[in-house]
Write a structure and sequence with these properties.
By secondary structure, the protein is of the alpha+beta class. Helix content is 18%, strand content 17%. The longest helix is centred in the middle third of the chain and has 18 residues.
């Protein structure tokens, strides 16, 4: 725990009430200390564990039907504050760049960067087609949602397997997919939400978004006529940083995972939100507030983290070829989203993203093989090493002629340019047919980290905490630094009840165990499960974890 050795006194109050739950808790938890220079009064606001083994909070219920899927929803990912140096803070770099190109997109073009144009699904379609890749064919482009019902080209495009998309939205907002088309006054099943919709309801939903353009394109389904697995490659001028995988779309079993190019899981430590300041723990590892991260655990793009699954290694190799070629053409960091077609042999480009998760967080980390530290900053470091322009995240390249005037075109002219583009699918793959399917993905987290099961999230000081009615401790309301600290998980008491440099509190002071240096405490000091009435279990691991 930060500054623990410099504290004059740690009053550790452990009541029989608090300890009654310990017998139900795992005693195999390991503790990673943090020692720094933050004043003791701020300790509870600045807890910085490096990591536990799996920073994921198990779901209460997983639909039984999911056991039939390759991967199923497993847990909510932690959202841990991470203390990367600013130039290696991946989410902050994304947010900074997005702000720059939003306020002045022409400046990026003048500097030789066109990545931001690809946020428009229409411009992305032109880029994919003109460069010889395979996007879903667009059959209709209009500038007003009502034109979906009046434009002749749209009327003929609304049958069969289709996707209707607002070109400037993200995360499936403004996206409607139908296996057998959609028509006026007739309900059709929208695949992403599994709801019944008419064409009028689609138009109404799009009108609420006020999109610049709406496109109707072919819907790509897998060999079983289901929505395909999505692969999102984080690319740095030809290098793959991570691959986000979304499985089982349109079912109760959809889930999210992050792997590397060798199919190793890199999502097992959860997600990270950088703080804007650099800090390290006492072992020199980047500081990560895992305790707070577990308390804030939640979905990733509305999805739970996947359990073990078997990715298609051959398909990933083919997609990596495409992503590498695109990345080298674009120059700057870009996320390339793809899936395989129904044959399993053609890579289909879905879209591009330059604003991953809105710059709020990311969910990839690796263990440094030399130091053993959890490297939560490696994507930001790849950004920093990607080229000379640190703001845009890469080196400038030639802006394609067909996109050079994109920003000056009206929405109608942009639609005309989109509809005048021909898809050639001429990319020369080194692997032409995928016959090796699939290969197992290593899923274990780093073996040197602990615990082996998810830890219940702990309530954080500063929040209101309602104690159990049988507790001798009062509820916490608008907690302040001078009051005792009480940990209270979402799923029941974990304890211990303790205070930092404070006055003695209930239970009776005779039950207080006081130490000057918690690193000197052993199981023998507080009981080893031999039936001590005051300390009935092996508690040192639990206490050490809670103190941190």
């Amino acid at each position: 725990m930060k500054n623990m050795k410099r504290m004059n006194l740690l009053a550790l109050i452990i009541s029989a009430l608090c300890l009654s739950c310990f017998a139900r808790q795992s005693t195999t938890q390991k503790h990673y200390d943090f020692h720094g220079t933050v004043p003791s009064r701020n300790l509870r606001y600045d807890r910085r564990l490096q990591t536990f083994k799996t920073l994921c909070v198990d779901l209460d219920v997983v639909p039984p039907v999911c056991s039939a899927f390759n991967g199923e929803p497993s847990c909510w990912a932690a959202r841990s504050p991470a203390y990367c140096m600013p130039e290696h803070s991946f989410d902050a770099l994304i947010a900074q760049r997005t702000m720059a190109v939003t306020s002045s997109p022409e400046d990026a073009l003048a500097a030789g960067f066109f990545f931001h144009l690809l946020e428009d699904k229409g411009a992305a379609y032109m880029f994919s087609a003109e460069e010889g890749f395979l996007p879903p064919t667009i059959h209709c482009c209009v500038t007003n949602p009502n034109e979906l019902t009046t434009d002749p080209s749209c009327a003929s495009a609304l049958s069969g397997a289709i996707a209707i998309k607002a070109v400037d939205s993200h995360s499936n907002v403004g996206v409607y997919t139908f296996e057998n088309g959609v028509s006026s006054g007739v309900n059709s099943t929208e695949l992403l939400t599994q709801t019944e919709m008419t064409l009028e309801e689609v138009v109404s939903g799009l009108e609420a978004l006020n999109p610049s353009k709406i496109i109707v394109e072919d819907l790509i389904l897998d060999i079983n006529s289901d929505l395909p697995t999505e692969y999102k490659f984080h690319m740095f001028n030809g290098e793959v940083g991570a691959i986000d995988v979304i499985m089982n779309r349109g079912t109760d079993c959809e889930c999210y995972a992050v792997i590397d190019l060798e199919c190793n899981r890199v999502d097992q430590q959860g997600c990270f939100e950088t703080t804007g300041s650099e800090a390290a723990d006492d072992s020199g590892c980047t500081a990560v507030n895992s305790a707070l991260g577990l308390r804030k655990a939640g979905p990733v793009k509305d999805l739970a983290i996947c359990s073990d699954f078997e990715p298609d290694a051959c398909a990933i190799s083919k997609m990596a070829e495409v992503a590498t070629a695109i990345s080298q053409t674009v120059g700057a960091y870009i996320r390339v989203d793809m899936f395989m077609d129904s044959t399993g042999d053609d890579v289909v480009l879905q879209e591009f993203s330059t604003n991953h998760m809105g710059g709020y967080r990311y969910c990839a980390s690796q263990v440094d093989p030399d130091t053993g530290c959890l490297d939560v900053c490696y994507l930001g470091e790849m950004w920093d090493n990607n080229g000379d322009n640190k703001l845009y995240g890469g080196n400038s390249t030639s802006v394609p002629a067909y996109l050079s005037t994109w920003l000056s075109l009206s929405a109608e002219d942009q639609c005309a340019a989109i509809m005048g583009t021909t898809v050639t699918n001429s990319f020369p793959y080194s692997v032409t047919t995928c016959t090796a399917k699939p290969s197992p993905a290593p899923t274990a987290a780093p073996v040197s980290l602990a615990p082996t099961v998810a830890v219940s999230p702990l309530s954080v000081v500063g929040e209101n905490v309602t104690m159990d009615p049988a507790s001798p401790f009062p509820d916490i309301a608008n907690d302040v630094p001078t009051e005792p600290v009480i940990f209270w998980p979402q799923s029941g008491p974990i304890g211990p009840c303790f205070e930092l440099n404070g006055d003695a509190m209930s239970p009776d002071p005779s039950d207080i165990y006081t130490v000057a240096d918690p690193t000197t405490v052993t199981n023998a000091d507080i009981g080893t499960g031999g039936g001590s009435p005051l300390f009935p279990g092996e508690l040192i691991g639990t206490i050490a974890m809670a103190l941190s």
